[in-house]
Amino acid sequence: MRVADRMKNLGTETAFAVSAQAKDIALSGKKIYPFHLGDMNIKTPESIIEATKKAMDEGKTGYCPTPGIPELREELAKDIGKSRNLKLTKENISIQPGGKPVISKFIMAFMNPGDEVLYPNPGYPIYESQINFHNGVVKPYGFKATDSGFELDIEGIKNSITPKTKLLIFNNYQNPMSAEAGEEEMRQLAELCVKHDLLVLSDEAYFDITYGEDQKSIASFPEMFERTIILYTFSKKFAMTGWRLGAAIGPVDMIEEITRLNVNDESCSNHFIQWGALEALSNSESETKRIIDILKERRDVTCEILNSIEGVKVSRPNSTFYLFPNFTGAMKKLGFDKVEEFRKFMLETTGVSFCTREHFGIRCDSECEHYIRLAYSGIDVDQIKEGLAKFKEAVENPEKAEEWRKSH
């Protein structure tokens, strides 16, 4: 079989590879505690399901307008406009089959081959994959660890910008680190984008998964909306991960280019699901609060247990459903110097399945600490307690790790 050369540049979402390993081990009869994938085991609110069924019964099963049904675009413009302090109409909205397509369409529409693109590292691996696939130049930027979490390396970003730098991808409320940029960080980043005339993809997939803190979008800063595409998804806020519906939001001229790609890629997003999404925006505020409350309890329990383990440090983030604990001390205690080896040991001996820093971009030369990512969106509190109890026991028994290494 002949494969196009460009396929060599296409990466993957490595969390799915970990998921496949976990399934293989589960087939052998071992219980798995799934912290690896940012999926949700919380059911989509019933009102959304019923609205979608009603739309199907009414025959809304054919094509719809390429940028989405007007009713949903109008309601989303109100919702996003209010939460981001922006003035929007339906013309600023292009409905997408999930949030992920916004990444590739932004890159296809606004990056030429050879253009440099700044993107977060550690970060969502699809950024790097799509930049490479479309023959851009990857320019990763990093973060600084603090006692309360992670901060943008603004100076590093500033020093990375060259005349060839055209785009910047910014993921506040971030996967995998739950990094949340403060007002001053975003102001400095916005000023850099304006100064160097960078177009921005603001990935706001987790904008609404916050725990009592006020959210802010970089698109609301001076001179930023006219150069920014917001990535929006229904997946997290309404527990609709498998429904695959999202949106690109931005200035009309940029949105028109995104919608032109819709015509070529999928004609339109799923028609009847859009009516379910309209119900979500209109009548599901209490359900969203319920989802947030469930996730908050899971976060608190997971943080408490992790911080009770010798050699583990993690802050309590105010957003997303991920934790990015530092396991350097625990790994040293067990005799591991490679985090991927540590991950396999834990998966095979305890059933606790998770991703590591290595699944979210190439480690920088300056990095000397070891981190893992735990997603608590798909595991109930009782299973969190049970799984992490086994995890803690394994960390406290170096002899078990030594036995495992000898057998491998």
Give a structural overview:
The protein is of the alpha/beta class. It folds into two domains: 5-43 and 287-395, Aspartate Aminotransferase, domain 1, CATH 3.90.1150; 63-283, Aspartate Aminotransferase, domain 2 (3-Layer(aba) Sandwich). The protein is 43% helix and 13% strand. The protein contains 14 helices and 14 strands. The strands form four sheets. A seven-stranded mixed β-sheet has the order 2-10-9-8-7-3-4, sandwiched between helices. Strand 5 (143-146) and strand 6 (149-152) form a beta hairpin. Helix 3 (70-84) packs parallel to helix 9 (271-283). The longest helix is centred in the C-terminal third of the chain and has 23 residues, at 285-307. It is globular. The mean pLDDT is 95.
Short summary of the structure?
The protein has 408 residues and is of the alpha/beta class.
Mean of residue pLDDT values: 95
What is the structural class? alpha/beta
CATH class of the largest domain: Alpha Beta
The tally of strands reads 14
Q: Judging by the overall fold, what is the CATH architecture of the largest domain?
A: 3-Layer(aba) Sandwich
Morphology call: globular
CATH topology name of the largest domain: Aspartate Aminotransferase, domain 2
Strand content: 5-15%
The helicity comes to 40-55%
Alpha-carbon distance between the two ends: 35 Å
Low-confidence stretches: none
Can you tell me the number of structural domains?
2
What's the topology here?
Blueprint: H1 15-27, E1 33-34, H2 46-57, H3 70-84, E2 93-96, H4 100-110, E3 116-120, H5 125-133, E4 137-141, E5 143-146, E6 149-152, H6 154-160, E7 165-170, H7 183-195, E8 199-203, E9 228-233, E10 246-249, H8 252-265, H9 271-283, H10 285-307, E11 322-323, H11 328-334, H12 339-350, E12 352-353, E13 355-356, E14 372-375, H13 381-395, H14 398-407
Parallel strand pairs: 1-12, 3-4, 3-7, 7-8, 8-9
Antiparallel strand pairs: 2-10, 5-6, 9-10, 11-14, 13-14
